[in-house]
Amino acid sequence: MTKEDIKQVVLDIIADIAPDEDLSAVKPEVRLRDQLSLDSMDFLDIVMELRKKHGIEVPEADYVQLASLDSCAEYLLPKFQAKGSK
Amino acid sequence: MSSKTRIVITGIGLTAPNGNSLPEFRANLLAGKARIAEIDVRHMGRHPAGVCDFDATKWQKRKEIRNGTRVGSISIYCAREALGDSGLNWETVVKSRVGVYLGITEHGNVETENEIHNISQFGNDTKYWTHHHNPRTVANNPAGEVTMNMGITGPHYTIGAACAAGNAGLIQAAQMLQLGEVDVAFAGGVSESIHTFGIFAGFKNQGALGAHEDPTKASRPFDKNRNGIVISEGGAIYVLERLEDAQKRGARIIAEIAGWCINSDATDAVLPNPERQAECVRLALQRAGMRPQDIHIVSTHATATALGDIQECTALREVFTDCPGTYINNTKSFIGHCMGAAGALELAGNLPSFDDGWVHPTINIEELDPECAMPGLVINQAVQASRLEAILNNSFGMLGINSALIVKKYGVA
């Protein structure tokens, strides 16, 4: 699992929870909320889908790490790697 | 604001299993076309049910549909269609003076069952329970979704009234208009009940779930071989206004609310009480200043249960004696029992009779139950009436709630 893979995982989740959004030009370094119509319930959906589909837990104190695709990749990479090595 | 303030219907939006607009619904009622499908019910296999096929994306973004509820989508579709039908200039309507009053039989069962199923896939660990559960299951959900979609900032709530809810929503709105609480009301009834197995299982174990090898014949009120209710989803929402306001803006007035009554049996949770039903109808007539002879269509509640149909017929026979100009029909024979939407849909399907002069029938009667025989019962074929100026719409529900709503042709004294 690479950082690029993780960005795609997050984009796939966003495509599911925000189906009206155009995700073709999402800038990885820009906060997701600044370029997409996402609210706090949507971020909870991202957390839930990471839990359901990938067995990844994101504690509430770390929600801020999901701000952009880049920060998602940075934060989630060790978690995915830990899952993969089990 | 006087209680004599006259309230009129100026718009209708609906979705029924056999129509997504009033013209389509009406055409199928006059043509005797039922539409009931067989669906997979969780844990229960296949059962007949009335399924609506309106396009939710007509008025909602896909995210709204995903985050909301099925009944929220039904409500938004109906309210938006009603607005279009009313001719109101929405840009100029003061949104804080608009109210939304929707009758529901139940709400929240669908989402709760879905989540129980969902967490069962994860060892019943509640950390997988969706955070959308509470906004989806609060009792005001369907009405609240309408306000968010349409930017309405006046009051909104649902009226829980079992299967009398469609009438109850309209009555609530008429009262709020009379009180001057709002200037425009979106009101009626909605239901998503086909998506909850609990409703099916409850009726089945009560011996009241309808079945037939041909699903379109499963709902057959007044037939000797009827065997229970066909559960359906649907919605009908009306735009109601005070007559003077409707006249001021030159609105097309579809009909006038003439009188109503809601009362309670106070006897049994599920077995209707014909004495109280008759009392309810009489009180509605009294409040409308009408005699039984002044009613030209009685839209019955009958759901095709063995006892319920007989009880309603007993009540109607008591009130409508010597009424040669009164026709009696039933809509559930076409679309099943739309629960919270039933009363509102059944009234809507009859309203065009003021213009076209026809009374739609009750269908699926192969052998009339002698205990349901009533003069004026329109069986299997529509009839043309010489005079059609008032409709009595019956809707009754569990815990002994009865409602009767009288609507008259506008301009008739």
Describe the protein in words.
The complex is a heterodimer of chains A (86) and B (413). Chain A is mainly alpha-helical and 86 residues long. Chain A has one domain (3-85): ACP-like (Non-ribosomal Peptide Synthetase Peptidyl Carrier Protein, Chain A), CATH 1.10.1200. Chain A has helices at 3-17, 32-35, 40-54, 69-85. Chain B has helices at 22-31, 62-67, 70-86, 109-120, 133-137, 141-150, 165-179, 197-205, 243-248, 274-288, 306-319, 332-335, 342-350, 353-356, and strands at 7-15, 37-41, 45-50, 98-104, 156-160, 184-191, 231-232, 234-242, 255-264, 297-299, 327-329, 358-359, 383-384, 390-397, 401-408. The chains are: A mainly alpha (86), B alpha/beta (413). The A-B interface holds A 17-20, 37, 41, 44-45, 48, 51-52 and B 61-63, 66-67, 122, 127-128, 130-132.
Oligomer class: heterodimer
The computed structural class of chain B is alpha/beta
Measure the end-to-end span of chain B: 22 Å
Shape assignment of chain B: globular
The name CATH uses for the topology of the largest domain in chain B is: Peroxisomal Thiolase, Chain A, domain 1
Count of discrete structural domains of chain B: 2
Report the CATH C-level class of chain A. Mainly Alpha
Major beta sheet summary of chain A: none
Shape of chain A: globular
The poorly predicted ranges of chain A are none
The major beta sheet of chain B can be summarized as:
10 strands, mixed
The amount of helix of chain A comes to 55-70%
Task: Set down the secondary structure blueprint.
The complex is a heterodimer of chains A (86) and B (413).
Chain A: H1 3-17, H2 32-35, H3 40-54, H4 69-85
Chain B: E1 7-15, H1 22-31, E2 37-41, E3 45-50, H2 62-67, H3 70-86, E4 98-104, H4 109-120, H5 133-137, H6 141-150, E5 156-160, H7 165-179, E6 184-191, H8 197-205, E7 231-232, E8 234-242, H9 243-248, E9 255-264, H10 274-288, E10 297-299, H11 306-319, E11 327-329, H12 332-335, H13 342-350, H14 353-356, E12 358-359, E13 383-384, E14 390-397, E15 401-408
Parallel strand pairs in B: 3-7, 4-5, 4-6, 10-11, 10-14
Antiparallel strand pairs in B: 1-8, 1-9, 2-3, 6-8, 9-15, 12-13, 14-15
